[in-house]
Automatic annotation (TrEMBL), chain A:
This is Quaternary amine transport ATP-binding protein. It is found in: Cell inner membrane. One of its GO terms (biological process) is amino acid transport. The keyword Hydrolase applies. It is a peripheral membrane protein. Residues 278-334 form the CBS domain. Its main location: membrane. It is an enzyme of class 7 (translocase).
Automatic annotation (TrEMBL), chain B:
Pfam families: BPD_transp_1 (PF00528). The keyword Transmembrane helix applies. It comes from the Bacteria. The chain crosses the membrane at residues 40-62, 69-87, 93-115, 136-163, 216-239, 251-272. One of its GO terms (biological process) is glycine betaine transport. The lineage of its organism: Bacteria, Bacillati, Bacillota, Bacilli, Bacillales. One of its GO terms (cellular component) is ATP-binding cassette (ABC) transporter complex. This is Glycine betaine transport system permease protein OpuAB. Keywords: Cell membrane, Membrane, Transmembrane, Transmembrane helix, Transport.
Amino acid sequence: MSILEIKNVSKLFGPNAEQNAKLLDQGWTKEKMAKEKQITVGVNRVNMEIEEGEIFVIMGLSGSGKSTLVRMFNRLIEPTSGEILVNGKDLRKMNKEQLRNVRRKTISMVFQKFALFPHRSVLENVEYGLEIQKVAKAERRTKAETSLELVGLKGWETKMPDELSGGMQQRVGLARALANDPEVLLMDEAFSALDPLIRRDMQDELLELQDKMKKTIIFITHDLDEALRIGDRIALMKDGAVVQIGTPEEIMIQPANSYVARFVEDVDLSKVLTAAHVMRRPETITLDRGPRVALELMRERGVSNLFVIDRSKKLLGIITAEDAVTAMKTQQKLEDILIRDVPQVEPERMLNELFELVSTAKLPVAVVDERDRLTGVLIRGALLGALAGEVDNGEVNEYA
Amino acid sequence: MSMPKIPLAQWIQTLVDWLSLHWAGFFKGVSNIISYVVDIFTYFFMLPHPFLFVIIIGILGYIANRWSLAIFSALGFLLIYNLGYWTETMNTLGLVITSALISILIGVPLGIMCGSSKLAAQIITPLLDFMQTMPAFVYLLPAVTFFSLGVVPGVVASVIFAIPPTIRLTHLGIRQVSEELVEAADAFGSTGGQKLFKVQLPLALPTIMAGINQTIMLSLSMVVIASMIGAQGIGAVVYRAVGQLKIGEGFEAGLAVVVLAIVLDRLSQSLFKGGRKQRA
């Protein structure tokens, strides 16, 4: 079961919003609603399922409804229609007490402009969520200190928020949200107010923290680079509706429509695509064959070398046509001409980290999985082709 | 064609008569409490010898705002003592402090109500306009009807005249707390009370204090008018002096009001600021 399920959630602003919500189901557009009913559609029938432990990015330009949407996840904004299921329980059916409990224990929030309480010290800010739950002073102090340590702010407890830089203030914001040990973290444009370098650092740190904590993070951003960098999955929003949900690769490679395509066209593909996306099928041979067979295979496939693998597809090395010719003349076995030192990369390696290796390597670069099995080969032309957008749905191309 | 006149005057008269007849017990009770509080304050202000009081006020001035205020307060009160208006000034101080206290006790909660409910704000704001612009003499008379002559109707009139800034600025202070902070308080699961006492009120405090300061000043400006209905104090001296064309005496008493005003203003402003520094 998904930790958070959003079913057909809409938010309408204006007269008789509740009654008019049904019109959306009848196919009324945002424009028609505005024109004929004086209703602004903030969020338009959004459906999404957020899985435990993932970083789910909701991205869109300003006015796309993403901030409104995320505020409905803890009912800071009341949805007009639809269901919001937190661990299977409908948030909209909860009374005040139950809702408070969800906010205290299950869902925490980090804000764009930090929203630190200026009259409270760093430690008191982090303690806030525990304090209002009436957690004993000593216990909440320990938890707050642990939380501050986690974000690297140990020793800053007694400072006031306005004595800290923006990046540090947002760390306090993060620590405050983590102190409650929530299951879900809502981060509303959490890094947007920071300057680019600090922002990169914070993104890295968030990913690092996430490795340790395995929280479910819902991250709002208007920055596609940020979305691609940290998102396990991305939901792209436009005019209050979700246009596409998918992994960063899916969004880049198979844009659902021209809007998404335009959105992603300026993105540096090398930071999104991995070795697995651009590798080709390798030509292989096993060691029990002779040099003559190897040469014949090379000629047939039009290549000048072959990867040598064992029966379980484990990569042993490579042989070149030149060596095979020599071996044939001197009656050597394949084993004698095997080059074991083959350049290799793992399938998850980003494209921008591959260029140097591929361009300087004398031999083809092998793509090898975590069990040392050969899964593909990197070819210079294919790499460049991928950058030009010629990726065939991210699958390994047939290569004859 | 003549338009029939609305008998507004008659209605008000009837209402006041009815209230003074049927609510006499209530007004008597309120009157007793107010005069008791004024008496207590006045008693405490009269308790120390004037010289001791001068020293105390000097120390308060020093705590609040270093030497300048300390010296001004001490010299000012010495002057009042020297001119022979000590008792009257202490009576006035009792009246002012009492009406300021009542204004705070009623005004701050009303301001909070305005801050949390639009409806309350819509009802209370025009009432405040009414209270601030209606000439004071007009509600002085019904005050006398309900509370008879003396210090109590003076306090009541002062409260009516002086309470609006406290309500308005409390409302403003709460409204000024940034939306994001209120959201943050909500997002962590605060109850309404927790949000109010841990976030909204602390952040609104500077503005609320400015309102309270205004309230003190306004109730001081009511002392002469209050003296017209028998409230004792420095206002009565001014009123009497003006009535008898004693220009010099009137100026002396007026000077005492000024000293009192400046000291109260500076003290109430900076005592609060000191508290804020401590916090930061």
